[in-house]
Amino acid sequence: MKKVLIILLALSVMFSSFALLSNVAAADSISINLSPNSINVPNKITITLTLGNAYVGANTQIEILIDGGQDQASKFSIPTSVSTSSIYTQISTTSYNVFSASISTSPVDLSKSLVIRTSTSFPNVNPNTTFSIVIDSTANFIPKTTGSHTIRVIVSGNYVVDGTFTVGTGGQGSPINIVSIIVDNPKLGDTSTYSFNFVPSTNLVSGDFISVEFPAGFTVPPTIDGRNFALKQGYATISDFSNNVSVQNNVVTLTIPPTQFTFNANYQTTLVFGAYTAIKNPTTAGQYTFKMWTSKQPTPATYTVTLGTSITNLMWDVNPKTAGAVGEHTISFKTSSSGALSTNDTITIIFPGGFTLPTTIPSGGILVNNVSAQASVSSNVLSIKCPTSIGAGSSVTIKILASSNFVNPPVSTSGYKIKVYTSQDQLQVESSQLMFTPSTLQNLKVTVDPQVVNKNASISFTFNLGLGGALSASDTISIILPLQFSVPNQVPSNLITITAGNSIFNPSSVSKSGNTLVLTLPQNINIPSQSLVSISISKDANIMTPQTGGTYKFTVYTSKETTPIDVSIDVFAYPKSNIIINPQNPDGLNGYYITQPAISFSVSQIAGITPTLYYKINNGSYQTYDLTNAPKISIPEGKNVISFYSQDNFGNKEPENTKTILVDLTDPVITIAEPKENSVVVQPTFTLKGAVKSIDVANTTLLVNGKLVNLNSDGTFETLITLSSEGINTISIQAKSPSGRTSTKQFSVNYIARVTVFLQVGNDNAYINGEQVKIDAPPFIQSGNVMVPLRFILTSFKANLEWDGIFQIITLTLGNNRMRLQIGNLRADVNGNLKMLPTAPVLVKGVTFVPLRFISENFGADVKWDGTLKAVSIVYPKP
């Protein structure tokens, strides 16, 4: 049966002169045994597990998936249900029933798995302790194909152990199953106890033998005392193999002496080589493969262990991570529990290909835990002598400073890793991957002089080399000029000047391909990374600017920094003028300025020209603007069109530019034509007429009592007003110009409903607005004056009356008018003025009569006398 290779990392071992103490960290292991190990028939399946970092106890869920995937049914037949009587667990030779067992089907690929839960009596199984799960043949698990199969065991829903097993190779042809080999003391060159945990497929009894072949590098003495061995299975133990041990080269063979024990097939068995066998570990760290077989299963089984300790928590960083740059490296790790370092020990770092390491390390160039360390370089291997003692399990930080001149590698899509080990922790540990980015030029600037069309121009470039961009002799700088520039076939090198630091020189050669100029650096030139480089191409090189204005792209790269960088500049057909408005943005609505703006002009900086700017406001004449002093020009109210253009000393004239500036400095003015302010209206509905004056009447909005009213083109407006109650009514009028300037006017009228009263002398019937009413007493004529009942008149006019019974004084109030009368007195007080009555008020049978015309006219009524009918018509208020 094909085994599953499990690599266990043994931890530290400490020896004393009296006892051996060990602390072993075992990895997960899984082995599977089938009986009869044949296809198309139910098999008994024994799954033997050792979990490195998980506990199994009572009521623990364990899921077993064999040949998981969509093709499971073609490889292994799993029943749809299973009985708990067909499944049990086993620790050593003790078996335990399971609490539950069921078959679960995956909704994704329809594969089936066995889910069991251990019984409540199942004891705790600690990490690194072996136990088994047995699926009896009665469970009806049937292999369908021979060869390799997979198994996955999931403990408590999240702890996963994967393995493989082989179907169809049962019998003596199959090797034993080695579960694990534990080297208690993994220290190189030391003796150790070796524990071989295996599962035989056939019973082992007295006379059978077990052979172990130690890998090359182990030291095996020619004779070994048999008392240093033990064979264990459950409670069965043989601890003395005296006269039953043979050694041939590195093969140790133990013959089982006479014993009552049978070491049963399919159960884990342990063979122990004690420390006093004097077998010694190799002196070199690495992986070592053991072979093991029995007389019943002579085909050797193999198992590989790793010997030697390793550092942990390896971290590596480089600053900057720029290709070609000199990097400062920070490497940190922890020594193992047996990996203490002294000043005689070394730390080795293997750098991948692509890094450039110096031949020597300067003093102070490498620090170990902030202590300067000596180091040497061989090819890409850095060996550091530990400058100070470092304890086991301690942190180590190595700084490789920039002064050591470690040059970063080129860009790689797969990244880079280093390997680190020490003279005490000899197993190489690989770091995580680091990616390096390309080094590129920085801060490219280009100047063309003159910066106008169709002229021979000088061209200047400035840029900074990147972190990995140092240049030296024979390196090149490539300049790609826009295709629209005319470049001669040859550009003499003496017309190109390169400045870097304090060095000013010409290129050793200039080659041209298309519009690309390649400048080769001369001998004895070294330009450090990040240096500022300037290149000037003389106007005498006869490079001509394009025939038309536009934006043109220049590109530069070097042989060390091949990623092109570019910058675009404008070449002008004429100067470009600009208008500056203060404030910059309109502070009103709809593009209006409501505070007076001022303008000034400028011309864009264009190398090699002298511009002149001309401007005018509205229909005025063009004036020359003083570009030197840049005076500010105030813009008047209204719609203003600013026209301007510039012209250079080559005669290139800019097309005329225009800018419209809307200015509104005055709030709208509202006037009311009719009715007059505070006038009396006698109807609830009347026409309000007025006008609005603003910067733009067509776009001015008018609200009267919150309702939108249309304005005529001349600003006049008319709208119907409906009053809801008599008395003083205030009308709110708001005008808002398009700039947002707003005026509000409050306008009042006095609404008094018109009343028509008809009286006839001697008739106690009267008419109010055409409706007949009964009055207290009929009117009569006294001294030529029609006397009428006062209360009737006051009620008709809706006036207020106050009566002073002591002095027989009557106070009348109607609107803004106030009148005081006294019975029998010809004097009357009208709004504070003394007036004479034609006839004094009289009391007739308790009814006060007053002269009608005096009362009516002083209250603003119209009185008409019909002598024929001896009737009076009164209209209040008068028309």
Could you describe the 3D structure shown?
There is one protein chain. The strands form 17 sheets. Strands 3-4-10-7-8-9-5-12-13 form a nine-stranded antiparallel β-sheet, with no helix packed on it. The radius of gyration is 57 Å and the shape is elongated. Helix content is 2%, strand content 46%. The N terminus is likely disordered. The chain contains three helices and 75 strands. The protein has 879 residues and is mainly beta.
- What does the largest sheet look like? 9 strands, antiparallel
Total of DSSP H or I helical runs spanning 4+ residues: 3
Number of strands: 75
Helix share bin: under 10%
Q: Into which percentage range does the β-strand content fall?
A: over 45%
Q: Structural class of the helix and strand makeup?
A: mainly beta
Which labels suit this protein?
75 strands, nine-stranded antiparallel β-sheet, 879 residues, mainly beta, elongated, single chain, 3 helices, disordered N terminus, five-stranded antiparallel β-sheet
